[in-house]
Amino acid sequence: MKKKLIKFYPLIPVFTVYILLFFIGKNVPGMWQLVAMLLFYCALGQAFNIFLGMTGYVDFGYVAFMGVGTYGMALAITRLASIEELGIGIIVAGFALALLMSTLLSLAVGAVALRLRGAYFAIATIGVNEGLRFLIEGARIWNGSEGLIFVSDINNILGRDTADALMTFWADVMVLVIAALAAVVTLYYMRSKIGYALTALREDEDAAKVMGINVTKYKIIAFITSSCFAGLIGAASWALKTPYVFPPEVFEIQYTIEAIIIVLLGGAGTLLGPVAGGLIYGISKYYLAVYVPGFQLLIFAPIIIVIITLFPEGILGMLKNRFQNTGLAHFII
Amino acid sequence: MEVEQLTGNLLQGLVLGAVYGMATMGLSLIFGVLRIVNVGHGAFIMVGAFITLWLFNAFGINPLLAIPFAFMFGMGLGLIFYYAAIRKLRNAPELATLLVTFSFGILLEEVVKFIFGSEFRGYNWIVGKVNLGVTVLPMSKMYACFGSALVALLLYLWFNKTRAGVAMRSVVQDSEGARVCGVNVGGVYAFSFALGIGLTVVSGVMLTMFIPVGINPYMGGGYTLKAFVIAVLGGLSSPYGAFFGGLIFGLIENGSYTLFALIPGVEPFAMTRFLSFAMLLIILLIKPTGLLSTK
């Protein structure tokens, strides 16, 4: 029994952080905005880590999945707004559509890109966000470059008070739930056959293949899972918090960059890493925006270079070495 | 009328394509020799554009004279980046070099934004126009086109006629074999990386002739994507393949613009940007080693 439980110890620090964040945000006045941002970055890091961290493949077009998820929620709300009796169910429909759309996109991109190795994979993904953005603008899909604005739709269907609570509070709680869910899935993958296969693939893809591991299958599993979480984050954090969607904003490459920074800073392929990375990145971004607005990336770009060349294992890698063979080792993974 | 317009546009596309080709040669060279994908490619093009802008606006220096300066600057930048990070990552997993070159790109963008600000800028270099019957081209674009072709030719001669060029090709074929034959492989890596970046920065000078008011720290992103389409078209590891890939890409881009403009309810500019992405996926799907390669 104890052996079984020990498997789930690493979730304790993750959930502790999330619960602490929630209570700080709820009880300390004026903190909710910062907490919401931290939750967003933790969720983003955790979602991206499932693919980048576990497979060692880089998806430079990752933000496209968030964008598509945002569109999923936006489309559900604008198109179903006339059905009054749907009520809060419209949000459920929105998440379902976001999930469906990000899954479809990940299948389409994965079908081409995941047949390719390393560098070629990265090249294939580099234009996904730009390509989608220009397709939506160019072919005037979903209102083209004018975007979708659905403040009034949300207000009509949910009532003004519920809509306000949703936008300012419940949307962030949903991000928290998504982040927690991503942590559970990450740990489940790590402790199952999928995780072992992905570790083998990350270390030596040819050897893994020779050993009879169906590498493509596991790459696709990780890719789709990671993309679905991105879609959900987009739907919760972008569509619900700011009820409009414009193509240039939701396909902005900056969010891919941020996801990469968070995962590397914390430690790629670890469970706690993205949480640590998300907290550090979020807090420093928040305060840098106050003191030196507009220069976060100027500071973070050299930091990534230093991490990759000198500390490729990130913060968690260092902590792991430090607490090896102590009781804490069970919690740090 | 439409046929004439199409021929005119295609001719413009060919002129632009030569510059596109040159802008991709550095990427292919670095991939061919070091097996590293420079994901920050577009940012180096942007640096070239800003060098031209700065020299022209501050000192009134002719953009053509900016070329040697841009080349030296690019080589220096390449050497710094090589010794600062790339050299340590020679045997690291691919993930590391992808992310490092990506970070180089961000770093350059942010430094340029810090110095010059993020608004769109441009310069005005008037050297007359040339009438080609179906279309009128500014002389500056012709200079850029011929300049690019000249650079491609020089690179070809250098690769085939000099000892250093042959050494470099030997490293491409078999780095262990080259080492055994007494080639300084580490030096070749450093020089190739610097040369690749130098060429890319020079291509930024050429490209400014096509975008009179489009110089901005974040202009590189679109060119990174285009360069990858072209590089994959030409076989990714061959600089000459890249040059011809550029010509083809220029033709397709300008030709498709004319065709998209005929479809009602479609924004042709955005659609050509989408097309370059679609082409990338299609080529990778059909033949990842490149349509122009013999392998």
Q: Would you mind describing this structure in some detail?
A:
- The complex is a heterodimer of chains A (333) and B (295).
- Chain A is built from 17 helices and two strands.
- Chain A has 333 residues and is mostly helical.
- Chain A has a single domain (2-330), classed as ABC transporter involved in vitamin B12 uptake, BtuC.
- In chain A, strands 1-2 form a two-stranded antiparallel ribbon.
- The longest helix of chain A is centred in the middle third of the chain and has 31 residues, at 160-190.
- Chain B has helices spanning 2-34, 41-59, 66-84, 94-116, 139-161, 163-173, 175-180, 185-207, 220-234, 239-262, 268-286, and strands spanning 129-131, 136-138.
- Chain B has a two-stranded antiparallel sheet.
- In chain B, 51% of the residues are buried.
- Chains A and B meet through α6, α7, α14 and α16 of A and α4, α9 and α11 of B.
Task: Describe the secondary structure blueprint for this structure.
The complex is a heterodimer of chains A (333) and B (295).
Chain A: H1 2-6, H2 11-27, H3 32-55, H4 63-80, H5 89-113, H6 118-125, H7 128-138, E1 148-149, H8 151-158, H9 160-190, H10 193-203, H11 205-210, H12 215-239, E2 244-245, H13 247-250, H14 254-266, H15 273-291, H16 296-310, H17 314-322
Helix pairs in contact in A: 2-3, 2-9, 3-9, 3-12, 3-14, 3-15, 4-5, 4-7, 4-12, 5-12, 8-9, 9-12, 10-12, 14-15, 14-17
Chain B: H1 2-34, H2 41-59, H3 66-84, H4 94-116, E1 129-131, E2 136-138, H5 139-161, H6 163-173, H7 175-180, H8 185-207, H9 220-234, H10 239-262, H11 268-286
Helix pairs in contact in B: 1-5, 1-8, 1-9, 1-10, 2-3, 2-4, 2-8, 2-9, 3-8, 5-6, 5-8, 6-8, 9-10, 9-11, 10-11
